[in-house]
Amino acid sequence: MERKWTERHRLQALGRESADLLLKNCKLVNVLSGEIEDGIDIAIGGDRIVGVGHGYEAAHVIDCTGLYVHPGLIDAHIHLESTKMTVFHAAKRMSQSGTTAVITDPHEITNVAGLAGFMFQSECARLNRYIDVYFTAPSCVPTLNDLSVETPGAKLDSETLALLANMPSVVGLGEMMNVPGVLDGDAEVIEKIDRFLSVGKVVDGHAPGLSGHALNAYIASGISSDHESTVLEEAREKLRRGMYVMIREGTSEHNLEALLPLIDKNGRNISRLMFVSDDLDPRDMEGGHINRLLRRAVAAGVDPIMAIQMATSSPARYFGLDREIGAIAPGMLANIVVCQDLIDFNVHTVVFHGRVSSSRHLQQKENDLRLPYLPMTMNIALPALEDLRVPYCKGMQLRTIDLVEGQIVTRAGIVDPCVVGGYVEASPADDVAKICVFDRHRASGSVGIGFVRGFGLKRGAFGSTVAHDSHNLIVVGTDDESILTCADRIVAMGGGQAAIDGDSFVDMPLPIAGLMSDMDDVVETETTMAEFCKTALELKLKDPFAALSFLALPVIPEIRITDRGLFRIHPDGGPECVDILV
Amino acid sequence: MERKWTERHRLQALGRESADLLLKNCKLVNVLSGEIEDGIDIAIGGDRIVGVGHGYEAAHVIDCTGLYVHPGLIDAHIHLESTKMTVFHAAKRMSQSGTTAVITDPHEITNVAGLAGFMFQSECARLNRYIDVYFTAPSCVPTLNDLSVETPGAKLDSETLALLANMPSVVGLGEMMNVPGVLDGDAEVIEKIDRFLSVGKVVDGHAPGLSGHALNAYIASGISSDHESTVLEEAREKLRRGMYVMIREGTSEHNLEALLPLIDKNGRNISRLMFVSDDLDPRDMEGGHINRLLRRAVAAGVDPIMAIQMATSSPARYFGLDREIGAIAPGMLANIVVCQDLIDFNVHTVVFHGRVSSSRHLQQKENDLRLPYLPMTMNIALPALEDLRVPYCKGMQLRTIDLVEGQIVTRAGIVDPCVVGGYVEASPADDVAKICVFDRHRASGSVGIGFVRGFGLKRGAFGSTVAHDSHNLIVVGTDDESILTCADRIVAMGGGQAAIDGDSFVDMPLPIAGLMSDMDDVVETETTMAEFCKTALELKLKDPFAALSFLALPVIPEIRITDRGLFRIHPDGGPECVDILV
User: Fold this and answer.
1) Nearest-5° angle of CA B476, CA B481, CA B483?
2) From CA B80, how far away is CA B134, in angstroms rounded?
3) ipTM of this complex prediction, to 2 decimal places
4) Which has more pLDDT, A251 or A449?
5) pLDDT at position A571, please?
6) Which of A219, A306, A309 sits opposite B331 (nearest CB)?
7) What are the chain A neighbours of B214 within 8 Å (beta carbons)?
8) In angstroms, rounded to a whole number, what is the distance separating the alpha carbons of residues B258 and B240?
9) Chain B: nearest CA to A165, how far in angstroms?
10) Which of A195, A241, A244 is the best mutation test for B, with the most CBs of B within 10 A?
11) Does the model's pTM come out above 0.90?
């Protein structure tokens, strides 16, 4: 272990050498003693805090009189790919909200590009100068290991995960979604868990609604956290039985208000609670990040010191990072937030690794930064127009995927088909659109065809390579020409999202695994596309691409479509392939 | 890593197989959620807790209606040698007080017997069936690495400590007493610290009175705890700057009342506080152990749940043991205490590794248990009678070691010597006794001679091989014959303590490194000896052997004696050899 505490640090701590930066006269939110210390100086040497207290001098002094100072905030579970940005861009924005560390599970890019995808994110993380990025290794790639259900992009077995377990930046195994595998003691699943426990790292859970004996068995297997609780009683049981509970407030899930009552007024469970966003849409990054959760928690009556502990010391200890981050103490990384008050948590200054984030020497020209190598992930053979046709069989009805607004579950519907020249077509009048999923990993030409109800699509088509979890190419349209044109365009971009109406179109290139952009205009582009979908295509959903991204996930009831066809998903188990016509 | 969670455990957790033991209808003190859950069942399979909640069945059921159930208690820092008992005997007594785990620093036996001493305690710990014993590796053996000051029993360098750092039962580096070495960045000291940090283990501190810049530098070097605070402000500063504070209440130090106000009423620092006893005299083990501290803390107004957290989950997390002990949750070791109330904390039943401690299959015939091998540690060459004589030089005065009652510091005194036939003698009338320290490690015949004031010794002699930190043989007497006779007796016992008055005597054999007995009558013997010292020798000190045990420790002011002679100890630094006559 190379010693991070140098000779110079030691002399600066002793006051025998002048510090580099001094935050003077702070109202220090001390998450260690659980109090606010007034009139404290914080001395920084290089990237470390060298002294806390008084009597230090430094070349550069920031007067913090009247200001609160707390440790940099930590998002304990986020899929950075959900921001559609590179780590560079996402980190810069988060930093502006007082976030200085995230624990990310690169679940999406790993599902697409496997180990290469993981390493790509890992290398971007290493290069970024705004936040510390720690990783959990994706535990369930692919979601289902069954080629007859869908064509996945990659596979991570316990052997490969064992390699990741030993990386210093990897702090644990990511959300273990294979609950049946855990409960049945599946050898490969247990092996994955043990590989991380045996090197002293944690295993995050993913157990929506799990309770009673099953929860006990799940916890006892070595899984120590969960971020899927949506109701208070669920979270309470998980906390009582030994789980660290991550309170989630993201783009797709909003659990903060429901779970805040979990916090013990007497603070006896604070060290076992934390905040996470899980998924964060680019447009949701504008109004802040974890500091927004603090604002809402405090507004709801939570003690501000406890709220800050949940966003700093609690996650740092849980992930074994508390020698480096999560508190303001001698020897730790100088990741510090200066803010006006403990009500709005608006950021005044952010210090990251001893440097003021806004200062020039930190400025990073993201687009100049050469991205690490990532193999091309659009390996696709698009079918011919006629291959998309659905011949009609007399007397039969059409099976549809019916959207449920505001939820990711679907309903299996039955309608009278619209038949033209012996083929089943979409009928915008009845809000029935055609949907296709194309394998984009193995150029197999494999395509799944179906019909979907609920988008309100009036004309044209829209599609995306963001389609959980295998992220094949999924397109919805009113006619085969539009569908293929849209698909063509997305392939030409090397992955991304597009919407077309005849000759007019909008698109967002996501050349990084078909999930992320390397540009700085993601938010603007997303807004433009939403506008186009609403006006030109008359889509009625607020976020049609979000809804679209879950239709190919063959583990959520009631009916899904993959590149292998249409599948009924039964709550008690596996997917069953079904015909379009019944 | 051999998996401790077996197939059978899994089936028992799921309720598919009957559990082995069921604690029914408990008032569960849940240290995880920070609350008391009423009417909870705890299912145990083998040595593990398999389920918490309801709906479990078991072969053996204990009805806990109306009873409180909390995790087994943890003493976060104790030198087990101070009990003068083998781990077997000490563990059995502690278990009866609800203690199921200790973190011990075998500082004494390692100073005497080196690695062999450490391994002896380690093996005894492994064989005992009453408590889990975890170790910190002694960081400062010997106290001073200077043969001209005293003859030590052993030396542990960073290389040897590195071996210990990798033992699973070793959770950290023991109290780092070499504060100057840490602050000066001494290479060997830093190496010792890094060896433990690099394998993810903690480094305990020992920094009485350390404050300000020096404290910052000490903490930043990687030292994360301290148990030496005696006043509130000292403990508060250490907590604020990043230390885990161990509140000590032992035989030699009583800091509980002074430090209780440190506990935040809102629990925001509970996870960073714990209880320790440090040193525990055999007679002090009668009135309980950590449960006695809980009783006093609660009586002083501390929330009982918080107090229990400080004695269970807090130390378990600090030492990285929280996957095994410190809470009642599925998958953890079944170390559980059933008690009548949260006021007296009197123990009703103790479950250790899934078995009721009082039950027969746990009964261990300690004296039948074959002790691990330990080399003979009395390697001594006693001088002849005439070698102890102190020739008088005309016109000179006598230097004395003056005891300060109730403290371990001494004062350097000057008296008119009592001269008989040209030799300086003890003079009981003036409370001046002769004191000798004999090297018992290397048979060098090295002996230090001096005079001590304050014992009130009227006749005879008393001596001990318990003499911090090198534990040479130390004897105090009114005449050389008694001193040598006493020394002879202790050598014959293979180490121990004795008091003689002419032909009558009492003694306690401590054949294990001259520190511990392998018998079960330590408490009784100690009482007998105290009585003899009081009546026969008319010693006025309550515990003369305790006072005696510190007189050879050449790091505490003002004056000490070792086998190399008399030393003045200057507060600012090292010991200076001085003459008896001035």
Assistant:
1) 20
2) 11
3) 0.94
4) A449
5) 72
6) A219
7) 14
8) 17
9) 14
10) A241
11) yes
